[in-house]
Amino acid sequence: PCSGDGTLRKSRQALAGWTAGMGLGFHDVQLDILKRGFELLAPGGVLAYSTCSLNPIENEAVVAAALAHFGELIEVQELPESLTSSLLEPGLETWKVPVGPQKQHKKNANAVAKREGHPEPELGGKEGGDEDCQDGLACGKLFEKWEDVDESLKVSGKLRRSMFPPEAYTTSGTASKKIKDALRRCGRLLPAKDNGGCFFVALLRRKFGCVSFRRGDRACFMEKDCEVLVRGAGTGRYVGLVRVTFPDATQCHVESSKLRRIGGEGVGEGEGSQ
Predict the structure, then answer these.
(1) 28, 34 contact by CB (below 8 A)
(2) Annotated catalytic residue: which of 52, 133, 220, 252?
C-alpha cells in the first residue's frame, strides 16, 4: 500500500484527492510489512522495498526506521549500475514532515486542472483561513525535527519519530550518519528521466553470521562477561539497541554487537561464506 503520488501524471482522480500529508497514513503499515518481510528472509536473502510514491515518509523514512530496528542484521545493497547511471537518483538523506494545509491542496489541484483543460476537481474540507486551523493540520506546517512537533500531534499519534530523519531516534551521530549513507543507495525514478511515472526502490539484504535477539533469549554481555536476559528491542530514542536485564535486575539498552547468544553465534561477528 502507498499513496500512489508517483502516478499523478496519469491519474487525475488521484490528483484530486492528493494532500501533502497523505503519506502519513501509510507509514506505519509500510514499516510493519517491511519488518515482517525481513524477519522471514533467509540469511543472504535480498528483499526489494518499492512504492509508486516519491513521498520520503513512505520511502526513506520507512527504510531508515528498519535499518535502525535491525541494526547489524541488515544492509542496503547497491542498485544495478545500469539503473543508477541513467535512470535513478539516489535516496534522500534528510526531509521534512508535513501536516496540512487542505486549502493549498485545492489551489494546487485546481491550477493543474485549469492549465491542462480538465474540470476542476472536487475536494472535501474547509477553505477557511487561520481560524480553521486545528492542531496545526488545517493551516499547514513542515517539521524538520521531532523536537519541534506540537505536543498535540505527538499525543494524537498523527506524527511519529520514525517519520523523521534518523537523528530523531538514533543514539549517536555516528549511527545516524551510517543510516544516511545507506539511504543514498536507494533509488528514485523521476518523471524527467523516462517521461512517465515515479517510483522508489531499495534492496535490503539480510547478512550472514548474524542472529536477531528476541524477548526471553539468554545472552552474554561481552564487555562485563556476564549473562543477561533479553527483554526486547529498544523503542523511541533507543531504537536500534537491545533492552536487557542484568543479574542484579537492572535494565539497560546495549548494542547488539556487544551480545553473544548463549549457545549460538553473536550479532555482528562477521559474515559467513556464501
Answers:
(1) no
(2) 52
